[in-house]
Predict the 3D structure of the following.
Amino acid sequence: MASYTAMGVLMLANGVGMVIYGMEVLGKVFLFTCSIPSFILLYVMSADKRFRFLLSFCLADTTCLWLMAITNILDYYLGGEKYILLLVSRLLAFPLLEYLVWRYLRKPYLELQDSVKKGWGVFAGMTMLYYLLLVVTVQYPTNIVNRPEDLLLCILVLVLMVFVYGTIFTSLYRQLLLYRKQQSERILQEQKNMLKAQLENQQRIRRMKHDMKGHTVTLSGLLAAGKTKEALAYLKGVETEMDAAYGQFCANPYINAVFVQHFAKLEELGTKLTIDIQAGEEELPYMELCQILSNGLENACDALETLDAEKREIFVQMKYNKKYLTIRIQNRCRNDLHVEKGKIPATDKAGDDHGFGLVTVQEAAGRLGGDMLCYTEDGSFVLDVMISCHSLKERMKI
């Protein structure tokens, strides 16, 4: 509502200025009476204030300038400068353009803005230069219809703009396809990891069943001999061995399998483990939670591998209460690593299959209606995920 009101006032002011001073005068100063004020207004209201906003603004404005220049030239040379063709062509062209953008470009463009964080500056710079080029070509020193000697140059600029913008959108679309491919590969890899964890869990169960047969024979022998105390001591030893060997961190078999798999790696690294799991008995959307835990623990394992054995420490907490499900993975990291809250650190690993773990955690948390935050503090890397129970319940209904 605020944007409609402000833009309406701006349009009214420019309309009054055109009536008083004429189109020729207003055309030379509209950069200051229309473009810059609208840019400031939309910039203040925009959530993103970086190059993505500048690109979006310049794309919209240069496209409007392009249509205005084309319709102006057509009206002058074909419509006898009676403004009938100008009015009809603009009444048709602008709504049609808005519909096409909304119908075909809006959704992939928003997806691209969410997925690609870098590389917008070059495209934004190109569109800004084209904006200035169109303004100079069409309006200076007078309107292009009054400069027939420059008409060919103006037409070439207008045609070239179509190809340049086509190149920009093609490049952006390829970026979107690449992002979708990487996202699909990440999801596929997570599914493979989950299946691997399930298979390992099943193998542990089979081994447990096999071992239980031997334990049953031993217990039967002790009880048959009347050695009750010895049988109880043996049973206690079996329970301790089972907990250490197979691990039971939570009741959910999928989430438990992720914990078992990664804690086995951490124990191999000689890591000091502190575990606080108070969730899993509830019905939870295990696909996203397994992605969060698997990538978070994998990230911790990678960080701990680079440290000396005596410095390897990790704290893992997962709590579920009436309002929130919270996950915290806190591990020791390099002293020179500094991550500010709200930012995702870039990977220092080579290859196209690295650098997606924390991004996957963020996306999985977002799909559950939650938030992810990571940062460094006192020589430790902290990964926090918070999801409302209401969002979890809604997710389970899907």
Remarks:
- The radius of gyration is 32 Å.
- The beta strands are 272-278, 313-320, 324-332, 371-377, 380-388.
- The mean pLDDT is 82.
- The longest helix spans residues 151-224.
